[in-house]
Amino acid sequence: MTISDLRNAAASSGAIGTGAPGAPDSSTTVGRPGKPKTQRTWRSYSVYLGLALIFAYCLAPFYWMLVSSLRRTADIFDNTLLPAPFSLENYAKVFDGSTMFGQALLNSLIVAGTTTVFALLLGVFAAYAISRLNFRFKSVILGVIIATSMFPGISVVVPLLRLFTDLGWINTYQAMIVPSLSFAIPLAVWNLTTFMKALPFDLEEAAMIDGCTKWQAFRRVLLPLAAPGVFTTAILTFIHSWNEFIIALSMINDPKIQTATVAISKFTGATEFQAPFGEQMAAGVIVTVPLVIMVLIFQRRIVEGLTAGASK
Length: 312
Prior knowledge:
mainly alpha, globular
């Protein structure tokens, strides 16, 4: 073997080992550690399995309530996953007139709707002042507003009961709306303040340069841009007021004024020792389904409103 042959052999081995400049080394590429396809597949399956478990854990009580509401009274204690036979007996009993459940649903709608409207009106202006105006103790005021929502409802029942008795508000709508506002307004102020802080100040300044007053800039520029946050706050406030139970149970004795949650707790059976589980399950489904449908329809707006300002 000549010297030229040795040089050619060395060049050939170097080309195999390193390759062209900038090209990956085939010898190292083959042995480079990587994630096996099987490992990636099992990780994906584990994520989906975890989500399925969470989904089942959250929806299992509602599913059992729905199935139980579709059983006959004689089959209410069956453990089958599907009602057999299928029956609407419990729903017919809920609306037979003796429970006044239809009126209770209307009362819940009045209380929750009024609370939502007033909470939004006060919350929008308070959030604008906190997010846009400069004044002393602004952070302290916001902290006090949030602190008022930390008190549990049961802790204010006795003082409110005494106060409303003196005012003659027992068995009235305002006895439920005013306490609900004390918990709904802090929620509205907090959500809307966070949202409005994320909106640029330049838009209002440009509107005022064009001749708008501060009120016109707020109404025509800022408020339309804050619509996702207002919409999200309205839904959360409505759900909170719709589900309220302690205040409504303590302030209302008249069946014509009681809300749906209180009416469900006062269902009675045909006899003294009979528990109307089927009727309560059916009423629970009727109260819950509208909220579920509303959240599913507007879930995109809710997520947009809750995440607004997170990436400011």
